[in-house]
Amino acid sequence: MSAPEQRVLFPLCRAALAALLLFVGLDAGVVGAHGEKAQEPFLRMRSFLYYDVQWSKTEVQVGEEVVVTGRFRIFEEWPKVLDRPDNAFLNIGIPGPVFVRKSSKLNGVPLFNTTSLEVGRDYEFEIVLKARKPGRHHVHPMVNVESAGPLVGPGQWVEITGDIADFTNTVTTITGETIDLEHHGFANVVTWHIVWVVLGVAWLLYWFRRPMFIPRMVKIQQGDTKGLITGTDYAVGAGFAVVTLALITFGYFRAESLYPTTVPLQTGRTTVEPLPKQPDAVEIEIQEATYRIPGRTVNLTLEITNVSDRAQRIGEFTTANLRFLNTDIVQADPGYPPELIEGGLQIEPAAAIQPGETVVVKISATNPAWETEQLAMLIHDPDSRFGGLLMFYDDEGNRSIAEIGGGLIPTFI
Ligand SMILES: [Cu+2]
Q: Which of 90, 147, 246, 252 is close enough to 83 for a disulfide, judged by CB 3.0 to 4.6 Å?
């Protein structure tokens, strides 16, 4: 390498190494989550609003199952910039293959295909996971929407103990054979990789053993192309082509004879009906919605009309997987991630709204979570709108869910 080259290359290498170390360092700093807080507030507040999410266990052995259940409401005022959930897939948000997914159901329908979901409606999911890799992992229910991306529910820490070597994932095939998916076909994959790598390397070596790029380029520039490709080269090239085609043909017929009965990967769609619509217990008109920056408080002034025949009280306001509870009515669920449950829901007047009555209610949700969960960022959006669910409870404890959403005005005093 010449001196000028060295002067250019060494600082470049150093910069690349520094960037790599910085990246590794940053990565180590954020192992705590998936970056779910980095999703724009409108994605978390106005798309899929998850509720009643539960994890059957938070500590499991390798091979044990965890069932994640819950519901989501697809927000009626779906953001215009997002593609609607016409092509959606129920998924799980985990850091790599630390669990295997044994089943997923939406409203009781097994869902391993894409489906289309209706805006404004509710769905109930159940995802069964089998613990594979020991560690402490953040587990979110998630729906992937084509062109809109992954829309995640709340994340719970699940601890897997044991040894990954004990993990098995056996299934019985349609021909009655029992196989372990953890290792099935692995030797075959390795064998074929070796075969193709050997062939590829042999092809490269055949050409590399002679002077390569620059001497050949010089010859071409001089118009002296004689002898660049010899008769032997043509023969060897034809030989490689024949061997390649023969291997492909052999592979095809071998697979056909080993696995005569196969089913292609299924790409059909599944239809899932939404949960039946519950009659509205209340009608809500938003009179004012503000975010007071110094106090980290969302203040809502709502005109609420009770259209049910029972007295109604507000028990919870939930948005972006955060739950603000009126602890007079709803007690914190010990199974829900504690960092996502907040008290501090002030309701004025606190009295129940009687049937037929219209009351102006002031709700304030004060919590640092507006900043720490990066939801307050929405005031910097050109479309500063919020969304969420208000949970009403009647005097018999029946719940009804009302969607609220609209513009949110920041206040600085
Ligand atoms: Cu997470």
A: 147
**Number of helices (H), then strands (E), in the chain:** 6, 22
| Domain final residue, candidates 258, 274, 303 | 258
32 alpha carbon – ligand 1 mean position (Å): 7
Which positions ≥6 away from 351 have C-beta within 8 Å?
Answer: none
Domain assignment present for 18:
no
Q: Is residue 137 part of a domain?
A: yes
pLDDT digits (tens, 9 = 90+) for 148-178: 889 999 999 999 999 999 999 999 988 899 9
Instruction: Tell me which H or E stretch contains 205.
Output: helix 186-208
CA dist 176 and 71 (Å) reads 36
Note whether 164 and 198 are same-domain residues. no
Span from the CA of 201 to the centroid of ligand 1 (angstroms): 42
Domain that holds residue 194: 186-258
**CA of 49 relative to ligand 1 center, distance in Å:** 16
Domain count, the chain: 3
pLDDT < 70 regions, the chain? 1-33
Give 109 Cα–ligand 1 centroid separation in angstroms: 26
Instruction: Report pLDDT for 32.
Output: 53
Residue 195's pLDDT is: 97
**Centre of ligand 1 from the C-alpha of residue 44, in Å:** 13
Ligand 1 midpoint to CA 138 (Å)? 5
Protein residues near ligand 1, an ion, with CB under 5 A: 33-34, 138, 155
Domain boundary among 148, 174, 200: 174
Claim to verify: residue 350 and residue 384 sit in the same structural domain: yes
402 and 299 fall within a common domain:
yes
Give a yes or no: residue 9 inside a domain.
no
Residue 28's alpha-carbon distances to 95, 96, 219, 322, in angstroms, are 14, 16, 53, 26
C-alpha 35 to ligand 1 mean position (Å): 7
- Gap from CA of 155 to ligand 1 centroid (Å): 5
pLDDT tens figures, 252-311: 999 999 988 888 888 889 999 999 998 899 999 999 998 888 888 889 999 999 999 999
Q: What is the CATH number of the domain that holds 349?
A: 2.60.40.1580
State in Å: Cα 139 to ligand 1 middle: 6
Residues 41 and 154 occupy one common structural domain: yes
Q: Tell how far the Cα of 156 is from the centroid of ligand 1, in angstroms.
A: 7
- Do both 287 and 250 map to the same domain? no
Run of H or E including 67: strand 65-74
28 inside domain: no
219 phi and psi, to 5 degrees?
-60, -45
